[in-house]
Amino acid sequence: MTEVAFHFGAPNKLEYAGRLLRKAVGQGARLVVFGSHDLVRRLDAHLWALSPTEFLVHCVDGDPSTPRSPVVLASALHPGLSADSVLLNLSDAVPDGFAHFGRVIEVVSHDEEDRLAARGRWKQYAQQGITIQKHDLNLKGAA
Asked: Buried-most residue among 80, 85, 104, 125 (CB within 10 A)?
Protein backbone atom coordinates (compact mmCIF):
# COMPACT_ATOMS: atom_id res chain seq x y z
CA MET A 1 0.00 0.00 0.00
CA THR A 2 1.15 3.52 -0.75
CA GLU A 3 2.74 5.45 2.12
CA VAL A 4 1.59 9.07 2.46
CA ALA A 5 3.36 11.82 4.41
CA PHE A 6 2.18 15.39 4.84
CA HIS A 7 4.79 18.09 5.44
CA PHE A 8 2.90 20.97 7.08
CA GLY A 9 4.15 24.51 7.55
CA ALA A 10 6.33 25.14 4.50
CA PRO A 11 6.79 28.92 4.29
CA ASN A 12 7.38 28.66 0.52
CA LYS A 13 6.29 25.50 -1.32
CA LEU A 14 8.72 25.86 -4.21
CA GLU A 15 11.75 26.52 -2.03
CA TYR A 16 10.84 23.69 0.32
CA ALA A 17 10.23 21.35 -2.62
CA GLY A 18 13.66 22.26 -3.99
CA ARG A 19 15.38 21.44 -0.68
CA LEU A 20 13.39 18.22 -0.33
CA LEU A 21 14.25 17.17 -3.89
CA ARG A 22 17.98 17.83 -3.41
CA LYS A 23 18.00 15.82 -0.18
CA ALA A 24 16.06 12.90 -1.67
CA VAL A 25 18.14 12.76 -4.85
CA GLY A 26 21.27 12.89 -2.70
CA GLN A 27 19.98 9.72 -1.03
CA GLY A 28 19.44 8.03 -4.39
CA ALA A 29 15.68 8.55 -4.76
CA ARG A 30 13.85 9.16 -8.02
CA LEU A 31 10.93 11.58 -7.80
CA VAL A 32 7.96 12.77 -9.81
CA VAL A 33 6.71 16.23 -8.87
CA PHE A 34 3.03 16.71 -9.68
CA GLY A 35 1.32 20.06 -9.97
CA SER A 36 -0.53 22.38 -12.29
CA HIS A 37 1.11 23.32 -15.57
CA ASP A 38 1.85 26.78 -14.15
CA LEU A 39 3.37 25.38 -10.97
CA VAL A 40 5.54 22.94 -12.96
CA ARG A 41 6.86 25.86 -15.05
CA ARG A 42 7.58 27.94 -11.93
CA LEU A 43 9.35 25.03 -10.20
CA ASP A 44 11.38 24.36 -13.34
CA ALA A 45 12.46 28.02 -13.43
CA HIS A 46 13.23 27.93 -9.69
CA LEU A 47 15.43 24.85 -10.06
CA TRP A 48 17.31 26.41 -13.00
CA ALA A 49 17.90 29.60 -10.99
CA LEU A 50 19.75 27.81 -8.17
CA SER A 51 23.47 28.32 -7.83
CA PRO A 52 25.66 25.88 -9.76
CA THR A 53 26.56 24.04 -6.55
CA GLU A 54 22.87 23.51 -5.76
CA PHE A 55 21.73 22.61 -9.27
CA LEU A 56 19.43 19.61 -9.45
CA VAL A 57 19.19 17.52 -12.61
CA HIS A 58 15.53 17.46 -13.62
CA CYS A 59 13.26 17.51 -16.64
CA VAL A 60 9.66 18.21 -17.56
CA ASP A 61 7.66 15.11 -18.48
CA GLY A 62 7.77 14.47 -22.20
CA ASP A 63 11.40 15.54 -22.53
CA PRO A 64 13.54 12.79 -24.13
CA SER A 65 15.61 12.59 -20.92
CA THR A 66 12.57 11.70 -18.78
CA PRO A 67 13.52 8.00 -18.33
CA ARG A 68 17.01 8.93 -17.07
CA SER A 69 16.24 11.99 -14.94
CA PRO A 70 16.10 11.58 -11.15
CA VAL A 71 13.42 14.31 -10.99
CA VAL A 72 10.52 14.59 -13.42
CA LEU A 73 8.12 17.55 -13.24
CA ALA A 74 4.64 16.60 -14.45
CA SER A 75 1.20 18.14 -14.75
CA ALA A 76 -0.34 14.74 -15.60
CA LEU A 77 0.49 11.29 -14.29
CA HIS A 78 0.82 8.14 -16.36
CA PRO A 79 2.05 4.64 -15.43
CA GLY A 80 5.46 5.16 -17.03
CA LEU A 81 6.30 7.75 -14.38
CA SER A 82 5.69 5.64 -11.30
CA ALA A 83 8.34 2.93 -11.53
CA ASP A 84 10.50 3.18 -8.38
CA SER A 85 9.64 6.85 -7.89
CA VAL A 86 8.34 8.94 -5.02
CA LEU A 87 5.45 11.25 -5.86
CA LEU A 88 5.80 14.80 -4.54
CA ASN A 89 2.33 16.32 -4.80
CA LEU A 90 2.21 20.11 -4.98
CA SER A 91 -1.33 20.27 -6.36
CA ASP A 92 -4.59 20.99 -4.54
CA ALA A 93 -6.05 17.54 -5.26
CA VAL A 94 -5.20 13.90 -4.71
CA PRO A 95 -3.70 12.94 -8.08
CA ASP A 96 -5.36 10.19 -10.10
CA GLY A 97 -2.87 7.34 -10.20
CA PHE A 98 -1.15 8.15 -6.89
CA ALA A 99 -1.53 4.50 -5.83
CA HIS A 100 1.01 3.46 -8.49
CA PHE A 101 3.69 5.09 -6.33
CA GLY A 102 5.13 3.46 -3.23
CA ARG A 103 5.32 6.80 -1.47
CA VAL A 104 3.55 10.17 -1.73
CA ILE A 105 4.74 13.37 -0.09
CA GLU A 106 2.30 16.25 0.27
CA VAL A 107 3.72 19.73 0.89
CA VAL A 108 1.46 22.22 2.65
CA SER A 109 2.23 25.89 3.15
CA HIS A 110 0.98 28.34 5.80
CA ASP A 111 -1.61 29.67 3.35
CA GLU A 112 -5.13 29.04 4.66
CA GLU A 113 -6.50 27.92 1.26
CA ASP A 114 -3.62 25.48 0.91
CA ARG A 115 -4.25 24.14 4.41
CA LEU A 116 -7.96 23.64 3.69
CA ALA A 117 -7.19 21.79 0.46
CA ALA A 118 -4.69 19.63 2.38
CA ARG A 119 -7.38 18.68 4.90
CA GLY A 120 -9.52 17.47 2.02
CA ARG A 121 -6.65 15.40 0.61
CA TRP A 122 -5.92 13.96 4.06
CA LYS A 123 -9.56 12.90 4.35
CA GLN A 124 -9.50 11.25 0.90
CA TYR A 125 -6.38 9.24 1.75
CA ALA A 126 -7.79 8.25 5.15
CA GLN A 127 -11.07 7.09 3.58
CA GLN A 128 -9.01 4.69 1.46
CA GLY A 129 -7.49 3.18 4.60
CA ILE A 130 -4.07 4.76 4.12
CA THR A 131 -2.08 5.50 7.25
CA ILE A 132 -0.74 9.03 7.05
CA GLN A 133 2.44 10.41 8.56
CA LYS A 134 2.44 14.04 9.66
CA HIS A 135 5.58 16.18 9.71
CA ASP A 136 5.13 19.62 11.29
CA LEU A 137 7.93 21.73 9.85
CA ASN A 138 7.31 24.44 12.43
CA LEU A 139 8.22 22.05 15.26
CA LYS A 140 11.33 20.82 13.44
CA GLY A 141 12.66 24.27 12.70
CA ALA A 142 12.86 23.35 9.00
CA ALA A 143 10.48 26.07 7.96
From this structure: 104
